[in-house]
Amino acid sequence: MDELHDEFITENMPNRVHMSTSCCQINCGGQADIAINIQHTKPPKINHDLVANVCERPTVVARCPVAAIRPALINGKPSLEVDEKKCICCGACFPPCPPMQINDPENSKLAIWVGGKNSNARSKPTFHKLVAAGIPNNPPRWPEVATIIKKILHVYKEDARDWERLSDWVDRIGWPRFFELTELPFTKYHIDNWHGARRSLNASTHIRF
Ligand code: SF4
Ligand code: SF4
């Protein structure tokens, strides 16, 4: 993102823009106006030798949004197991427990989410919205990601009113216009029509940290 250095020193955006590279695919709307995050395509493989030394197992179990992680005894030692049929490959278990090895340079892609509850000044809390997915994981400079981010920032800068946060701007113009202005392809995969939450979302009363 050093390609955006000029934007940081000229401060010509309509309002502040937070960008995050650490959010997960839960897309709670967590930390930023624009979230660049890893789109995993396979469930985590567990390094059982490390779990006992590195992880607090109840924390990891509670972290999973679909209750796919269970405590287990592996070779007589306390560890964890993942129900791969339930796992949605969100990656949320990796930060509290690095032995949940889900990063995969070959198969993991990148996704960009926009908006969310920390991206507005006037409207009600919302989730991030997926705007681009399946972007190649191309280190060290991730040129495909940089191109999309610069495009989003460019149209936001041109089209938003003074002091309008990114999410408020999208609320005003509407998502169809957002995709039109940014020239990002809108596909059927952008439509959130999942209705399995009642059956599979983790409904425990654990407090998550
Ligand atoms: S749950 Fe995921 S999307 Fe929400 S703040 Fe945490 S890392 Fe970001
Ligand atoms: S937290 Fe996400 S990646 Fe980890 S087991 Fe649960 S659904 Fe799968």
UniProtKB/TrEMBL annotation:
<dbReference type="InterPro" id="IPR006067">
    <property type="entry name" value="NO2/SO3_Rdtase_4Fe4S_dom"/>
</dbReference>
<feature type="domain" description="4Fe-4S ferredoxin-type">
    <location>
        <begin position="78"/>
        <end position="107"/>
    </location>
</feature>
<keyword id="KW-0004">4Fe-4S</keyword>
<keyword id="KW-0408">Iron</keyword>
<keyword id="KW-0479">Metal-binding</keyword>
<protein>
    <submittedName>
        <fullName>Sulfite reductase, dissimilatory-type beta subunit</fullName>
    </submittedName>
</protein>
<dbReference type="Pfam" id="PF01077">
    <property type="entry name" value="NIR_SIR"/>
</dbReference>
<dbReference type="GO" id="GO:0051539">
    <property type="term" value="F:4 iron, 4 sulfur cluster binding"/>
</dbReference>
<dbReference type="InterPro" id="IPR045854">
    <property type="entry name" value="NO2/SO3_Rdtase_4Fe4S_sf"/>
</dbReference>
<dbReference type="InterPro" id="IPR017896">
    <property type="entry name" value="4Fe4S_Fe-S-bd"/>
</dbReference>
<dbReference type="GO" id="GO:0046872">
    <property type="term" value="F:metal ion binding"/>
</dbReference>
<dbReference type="InterPro" id="IPR017900">
    <property type="entry name" value="4Fe4S_Fe_S_CS"/>
</dbReference>
<dbReference type="GO" id="GO:0020037">
    <property type="term" value="F:heme binding"/>
</dbReference>
<dbReference type="GO" id="GO:0016491">
    <property type="term" value="F:oxidoreductase activity"/>
</dbReference>
<keyword id="KW-0411">Iron-sulfur</keyword>
